[in-house]
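hiii, so i know i said id send this last week but things got crazy w the move. better late than never?? heres the sequnce for the chain we talked about at the cafe, plus the structure i predicted for it. fair warning i was half asleep when i ran it
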Amino acid sequence: MNEVMTMPRIGDQAPDFEALTTIGKLKFSDYNKDSWVIMFSPPADFTPVCTTELSAFATEEGYFSSKNTKLIGLSIDSIHSHVAWVNNVKKNMGILMKFPIIADIDMKVAKLYGMLQPGESETAAVRAVFFIDPTGKIRLIMYYPLNVGRNMAEIKRVLEALQTSDKHKVAIPLNWEPGDKVIVPPPKTVEEMEEREKSDYEMMDFYLAKKTI
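okay and structure toks below
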């Protein structure tokens, strides 16, 4: 009988765990405390697509730090394989992956987060990306198949969209980029509707209005 996989959903509390990583033993709830976390799963060490992705995350680590966001990777390989891979990328590309990479050889964490999807592979995690806020809540999930790499620009865009929405209590429209106008929540009373009509919002209708922040 196939094992039933847990599939965390948006709005769920991120499952906690302890694991060995390339920066030592780590308890996820401690790592997540007071900061956003982006958790991503490269299917395997020493693979071409994964190398392009993790080196990109490493290159952008300063950007993520400026957004109060930590990175953490997961691969179903041993800690020795991870360290060798980190060293290989440093020697060949001049890029050091300083963020932790979880050694998940028993697939414990991958199963906890629903990263193993048998229709794609039973021995490698799909390319999942979890955006987890400082309260430990999962806010956004992306899944990619093994043969398609992620889009770093989109990862950065949605992180800023989530943080902008939280900070300003607004919604984010189609194709939004940082600096674009955002959507103001619709009025809940007639009085709010009338006040809106006097505002300097960009009004498409009384329920759809945008503003610059």
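btw The CA atoms of residues 18 and 27 lie 4 Å apart. thought thatd interest u
miss u guys!!
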